[in-house]
Every structure is written in C-alpha cells, then in structure tokens.
Amino acid sequence: MTKSHRYLSLIASVSLLLTGAASAQPSPVSDPALVKTTAGPVRGVIHDGLREFKGIPYAQPPVGPLRWALPQPAKPWKEPLDASQFGNACPQVSRYGLTAASYDENCLTINVTAPYDGKPAKTRKPVLVWIHGGAFVGGSSSLYPLGQLAKAGDMVVVSMNYRLGVFGFMPHPSFGKDYNGGYGLKDQRLALAWVKKNIAAFGGNPHNVTIAGESAGGASVCMHLIAPNETRGLFEKAIVQSAGCATPLPSVAESSKTGVKVAEAAGCPDAKTALDCLRKKSVKDMLDAASKAATDLMAFEPAIGAKTVPRQGAKALASGQFIHVPILNGGTRDEMRLYVAYDIQAGQKFTAENYADTIKAMYGDKAAAIVKQYPAASFSSPAAAVGTIMSDFNPNIGINNCIYLETGKLIRKFAPVYESIFADRDAPPVTDNPGFEMGAVHSSELPYYFPHFDNTTKLAGPDLKPGSQKLSAIMTAYWTSFVHTGKPTAKAGVAWARFTRDNSVLRLEPGKLAAIDASREHRCEFWKSLYPKILTQ
Fold first, then answer.
1. pLDDT tens, 97-133?
2. Cβ count near 378 (within 10 Å)
3. Residues 43, 25: contact at Cβ < 8 Å?
4. Are residues 339 and 308 in the same domain?
5. pLDDT digits (tens, 9 = 90+) for 189-211
6. 302 plus 357 within the same structural domain
C-alpha cells in the first residue's frame, strides 16, 4: 500500500465504509453471542438482558510508524475474537489517586452493548456512542457501564478508547501538518466510521447515531460538530455535557510550544529528527516527559488550525460552519468546586485573608470587580466562593456555565438545542470531603447514567439517594428519547423546551425540576461586561 493510500482522508474512507454497510448482517439466531464484523467475527457475552461485546479492535495499534500518524483500520482476522473483556486503556499516568496508569499503546478498541430478550429484533435500534472524558490525558471506556442506558432506552450503546495526551493531542513542528495534534480526534472519527459500517450487525441503526460525551468527551463532541468537512455523515444528533464549544482554544503553533518542551524533556530537541527520535522512546519515557514539561490542567486540549479542527468554535457556530443536528447541551451547577477540592487536597489554603489574592491570580486586573460581585462573606466558605466564581465563568477553561449558554445561543440560530443544568447537591461525592460544601460538581451527574460510576473500573460508587434515583430515571428518559427522536421527553419529568430564551434552561434537581433563567443564576451579564470578546450573545 502506498503512502498516499495510507493517508486517505476520512471522508473518502467513510464513503468506502458505507458502501459495505449493507453486508453487515444481524447475528445468527443460533448463536446470538457471535457477530460478524467486516474485519472478522467476535464473540461476546449474554447476561442480564444484554448482549455485550468489548475490546473489539477498530484500528491497528498506533506503534512504530503509526505513532503520531493517522489511525489505520484493524487488520482482518478469521477465528472468532474473544470480546468478553475491555481492551487496554490508552497510555496515561494515574490522576487524583483514582484512574490507573497504563503503558500499552495497543488500546484502540470499541465496545458495543445492546438489549437482548432472546427474540429476533423487528427493527434496528437507535445508537448512542459515548466518548469518555479525562482532560484529554486520562480515562477509559472501561469506567462506564453501558447496560442501564441500553436497556432503559432500548438502544445500542457504544464506547471506545482513543489516544490521549502526548500521543493523541500534542502538536509538534515535526508532525504532519494536516492533522498535527489531532490524532486522538482522528481515532474517534475512525471509530464512528466503524459504527456506521458495523453497527447493523449488532442490531443498531447506522442512520440514527447520537454522539455524546462529558468533559473532554463533551469537548470532543464539540470538535466533531465544528469540523463538518471531516465528520459530515458520521452522526445525526449530539449530546455535549460539561464542555463549552465556544471556548477559545490555542492554535497549533501555540500548542506546538508545549510539544517542543515535551520533546526536549524526552531527549529529542532537534525538530528535524524529533519524530523519528520520539517514536523510539518508551511509553513511560514519553509520559514522564509530559509530566515534567506540561503541568497545566489543559496542556493537551485540542488545537485550532489543522484539518482536524479548522477554526475556533465560536467562529464556526456563529457562521453556521458546523454540523446542524439536534443538540443537548449543559453542565453542572458547581462544576469547578471539584478542582478547588483537589487544590485543597494538594495543600492549598482558601481563607478570607487570601481570597482577593486568589481571585487576582486567576483573573488579573478584573479581580476587584469580581470580589465585589462575589463577596466571600456571602458564601458558606471562601473555598465555596472561589468554586462558584470559576463555575460561573473562567476564560481559561471551557468548564463553566456562561460558556455553555454562549454555546447554546450560537447554535440555536441554526439547529435545535436544549440546555440543562445538573443541580443535585445530594449527588454522590466525587472525591474525599475537602471541608466545604461541594454540591453538584464536575462529573457528579455521571452515576445517574452509569450506575456506581466512581472513575475506576471497580464501579464502587454508592447507591443514589431515593430522590436522586428518581431524578436519574428522568434524566435517562430525556437522553434516550432524544436518541430515538431528537427531542428530550420524560413521562415523569416536565416539558423540556428548546433553548430560545435565557429562562428556558432545564434545572435537573430532585423536587425542583423546572425551567430557570440560567444567565441570571450564573451572573452572565456581569461576566459579559468583563469579557465581551468571549461572551458576545
């Protein structure tokens, strides 16, 4: 195969894949645990009203010349592949004492879970593809049990692993120009093409696919929405959770500065030979170099300017240069209190005495106005005040409520969008008690869709409280009806109207399920006065 053929664009690949979609047949009734994919047969597991297939390779291991290169479809196999266990997590270090480290690059696998009652299906089921979070440097599909969504929504649910950190989201001057810093996103897009090609064999409808994600997974959904030349035809609906599609992102050139530092730390300082040099380094050497050279929380967020993500999200949304599909969009009320908790665990102090200085360190010369707007004495603690400020708006990270609203306002001019805020302050704790009220922090809603989610493969999170359990059923119903029809409805819930005004944002809270004015609650007009170039609507 020639080099030019190896680097065919994804659009051409998708076209080829779709021509073969009709050949993917449902599983034989005689052995429903055996499914024939276009690469080879896979044998899954049937249990508890589900058919589950895990660890299916959708791409070749990205090693040797495939490290920092476009993902290539998995090589075919003949004998049934054991699909009873999740594949390896992609390379990463342990984070916050939760997620496990991984050093195995053979990690590009996909998982499929479908409801099963022992009877032949009369129609193909809608498909939800879940993209895991983890700040683009961590996480794994194995952390998310898919069964509740599959059974409650009568749909096929898919998840995948993709390259992370230095291997998936680090630009460098020696890498290919077209997709520099975007190989993790290209992995996701190849997985979505795999879904279009193969999901019918698992009982799914390849023409009714919804992509969804939270945090970095939600931001990945944003990147797919705003790259229409790359992703058109790969999905029909989208769910963005805790990620602001309108968040300003660095350019490839700006992010390449981090890549150069990482390469230097790894012992590959010469740009002319860096690619060959870096490909010879061990996974651990690369992860160690990244830890030394890139200490910022979002050091490996997507970069703008290559074909992978051609333009800023706000520009793409404002000009209509995105995939026009129905979208669910939102986050949690107290998002950034989680990171305040992590700072406390790392030894940082939040006091009335250092409150103003803490805000100045984050917001610079705008700090005085912010402290006046958010006096520490009006909160239960200075830590809670800092967390609330950052959850309302922060220009440096796309996890905040005003950027979610900005995103929705830009989208609604071209496509249906439904906005929500998860506000259950009785949600299970995400981390150890930091000594202040955390509330509905970042990722605290995940156990409502993925039972006992706790950021580990143990799935040892506590049961939801009774009121939260009822809310979980309603939230799941909203999601699954949206996956089926493009409109979120729930018999036990309230009507969820399209986002057309500030007061049409659905608050997800036990006993207080209602539309609210989220802009007023999160003081977005105040923030717009300070950051008019980011909050324009």
1. 777 899 999 999 999 999 999 988 889 999 999 999 9
2. 10
3. no
4. no
5. 999 999 999 999 999 999 999 99
6. no
Please indicate, yes or no, whether the overall pTM of this predicted structure exceeds 0.85. Answer: yes
Mean pLDDT, the chain, rounded, equals 93
CATH code of residue 158: 3.40.50.1820
Place of tokens 């202040």: 436
Dist. CA 194–CA 187, nearest whole Å: 11
Give the number of domains in the chain: 2
Q: Which two tokens stand for residue 18?
A: 């779709």
Instruction: Say whether both 36 and 157 belong to one domain.
Output: yes
Q: Look-up: residue for tokens 């150890």?
A: 432
**Pairwise CA distance, residues 349 & 169, whole Å:** 32
Confidence class for position 30, pLDDT limits 50, 70, 90: low
Quote the CA–CA distance of 158 and 196 in Å, as a whole number. 12
Task: Report DSSP letters for 174-229, one per residue.
Answer: TS-STTTT-HHHHHHHHHHHHHHHHGGGGTEEEEEEEEEEETHHHHHHHHHHT-HH
Q: Does 332 share its domain with 308?
A: no
**Which band of pLDDT confidence, cut at 50, 70 and 90, is reported for residue 273?**
very high
Collapsing DSSP to helix, strand or coil, 340 comes out as helix
**Three-state SS letters, 19-50:** HCHHHCCCCCCCCCCEEECCCCEEECEEECCE
Q: Which residue has the tokens 């700090």?
A: 367
Residue 480 and residue 464: Cα distance in Å, rounded?
20
Give the chain's largest Cα–Cα span: 71
> Using CA atoms, how far apart are residues 327 and 112, in angstroms rounded to an integer?
23
Containing domain of residue 117, as a range? 31-234+243-261+297-313
SS3 state of residue 420: strand
Residue 81 φ/ψ, nearest 5 degrees: -90, 130
